[in-house]
Amino acid sequence: MDQDRVLEAFRLEAGQLTKAVAGLPEAEWDRPTRCEPWSVRELLGHVRIVIAWLPQMLDNPAPDSAEIAAAGYYRPDDRFSPQTNATRIDLARNHAAECANGAALADDFAATWQRVDRLCRDQPENRVVRTRHGDAMLLSEFLITRVVEVAVHGLDVAEALGYEPWLTAEAGTVVRELLLGSGSGQLAAVRELGWDETTFLRKATGRAALDATETAQVERLGVQWLTLG
């Protein structure tokens, strides 16, 4: 997927999340989310952390070639083990606690993604990075996974705050293409279901259940999507 296109989706989606939490009353930051045990405050801390890995990745020597694409990044190994998940939870909680209040956390999130955006814009199209899990990936492919983080957890923040979801068309397209693969048949099948981007993302990530009719349609159409984790 074109790096500029993915970066634009990242920029737009992160910008919408920034707008959603700007000026949020302090008490709202402690609302629970579906991503237990995180509150809104801690969930935004998590999204900030997973974006903040990028500057160090760009500072490190580039691997000779990419070995993993975005879909392979989600393979079920130690990165989704109970121990790694516990560390992930603690990192988010600790970062949120380090910020004086929700406004400071929101400002930190905005500054972090904006810095990452600037750094990535200066990278060549074929730039290869190594993730903290050891994967050698094209920067464009790793950025797809960051779009996933911002888009999917943006849905979670919206739900926790009682907001209408703000999924941008650009981010929705990037995530849909990742979840369905590159085949045009899968995309045509999903369009036949009549779901918009937000509904598709909710259904495909288990944030909204399939009813009996939808389950039958999905099976009939042969729709299969990538499981994230």
UniProtKB/TrEMBL annotation:
Superkingdom of origin: Bacteria
A Pfam family: MDMPI_N
Residue ranges occupied by any Mycothiol-dependent maleylpyruvate isomerase metal-binding domain in the UniProt entry: 11-158
NCBIfam families: maleylpyruvate isomerase family mycothiol-dependent enzyme
Species in which this protein is naturally found: Streptomyces milbemycinicus
Name of the featured protein: Maleylpyruvate isomerase N-terminal domain-containing protein
GO molecular function: isomerase activity
Keywords for the protein's UniProt record, in alphabetical order: Isomerase
